Amino acid sequence: MTSKHLYLLTTFVFILACVFLSSDANPFYDGHEEKQYRENDSGLEEEGENDCPYHDDKYYPREEEEYDTHRDRRNAVAHIPLSDEYRKENQRLIDNKKEQDDLDKVNERT
Q: What is the DSSP letter of 9?
């Protein structure tokens, strides 16, 4: 192996290591996903397209210093108890799904 091959191999390994380390252990991460999410987050909520209560200020008011990154937001939200309103809505959706599944089974038999 010549010194040129060794140099190219070392450079390639160094570049791979840099990409791997800067991508939070995900070599396919493009580095722009979190920023786009934060920019689009409020716009989606205003238009009513984001119905997820974990990102809805009505259920969980946000404080900017707590949510520097999407990961921090996700971890912080995981420890917040769900509101009664959300639980009722979730139970209603589960009941509707069960009813729809039962109707589908009946329709399949006929």
A: H
